């Protein structure tokens, strides 16, 4: 490892930073709203209150899903730290890099990384996976629960009684609903709500690990890991392992 004077490096491009903070706000809001919905009965939330919570939850979900979709696209277009090649742990040479990083951790002299270090790549991959699961299942549930796009009209058409205009159906009101179709729709909904429920808890665990990892890496390696998500730059007094 080469010791040198402090040097600033451009790392996170602007779209990546915007994604991160928009995602942060959306995830915090969705967790709060989702918790209130999940424990609505214990909290004394009425049907009207639950409908309001779900509506706000869905609108935050739209922003979350669009932001996530943009980040997936940007992973093909952004700088080398924002691309899939700088995020995923499945590419050539990853095993060697991970082993070297872990040996450095054991010795207490691990080299810092400009982008994601090998362990962080594993975390990022898991976070992206569960964020995608939440987005996809959430969009389906927006249709089954309150008939919102993109699947809401199709769901409403499915459960509407013969001769009933699907657009007239009202959430939490069984007027105009065909009972058999409703039961079939709820059976269809079950795996999506199950995946949404468990990935919600998985994300909570991953977020705690992610925050702990950020704090630990900042303390051990420096570089301004948190501030870099505002400024886009990291500062090191050592030669980063991925400075190519």
UniProtKB/TrEMBL annotation:
Protein's membrane topology: Multi-pass membrane protein
Transmembrane segments: 21-39, 59-77, 122-142, 195-215
GO biological process, alphabetically ordered: respiratory electron transport chain
Domain Cytochrome b561 bacterial/Ni-hydrogenase: 11-232
Subcellular location: Cell membrane
A single GO molecular function term of this UniProt record: electron transfer activity
Main subcellular location: membrane
Keywords for this protein: Cell membrane, Electron transport, Heme, Iron, Membrane, Metal-binding, Transmembrane, Transmembrane helix, Transport
Top-level taxon: Bacteria
Cross-referenced Pfam families: Ni_hydr_CYTB
Family: Belongs to the HupC/HyaC/HydC family.
Name of the protein in question: Cytochrome B
């Amino acid at each position: 490892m080469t010791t040198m004077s402090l040097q600033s490096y451009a790392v996170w491009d602007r779209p990546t930073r915007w994604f991160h903070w928009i995602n942060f706000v959306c995830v915090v809001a969705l967790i709060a709203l989702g918790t209130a919905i999940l424990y609505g009965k214990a909290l004394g939330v009425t049907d009207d209150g639950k409908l309001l919570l779900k509506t706000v939850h869905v609108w935050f979900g739209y922003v979350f899903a669009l932001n996530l979709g943009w980040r997936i696209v940007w992973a093909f277009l952004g700088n080398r730290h924002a691309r899939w090649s700088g995020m995923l742990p499945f590419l050539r040479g990853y095993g060697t890099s991970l082993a070297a990083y872990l040996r450095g951790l054991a010795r207490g002299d691990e080299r810092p990384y400009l982008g994601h270090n090998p362990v962080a790549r594993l975390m990022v991959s898991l976070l992206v996976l569960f964020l995608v699961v939440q987005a996809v299942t959430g969009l389906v549930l927006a249709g089954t629960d309150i008939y919102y796009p993109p699947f809401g009209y199709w769901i409403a058409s499915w459960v509407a009684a013969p001769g009933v205009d699907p657009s007239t159906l009202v959430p939490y009101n069984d007027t105009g609903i065909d009972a058999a179709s409703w039961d079939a729709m709820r059976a269809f909904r079950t795996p999506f709500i199950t995946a949404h429920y468990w990935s919600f808890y998985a994300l909570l665990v991953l977020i705690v690990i992610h925050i702990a990892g950020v704090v630990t890496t900042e303390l051990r390696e420096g570089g301004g890991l948190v501030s870099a998500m505002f400024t886009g730059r990291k500062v090191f007094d050592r030669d980063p392992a991925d400075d190519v």
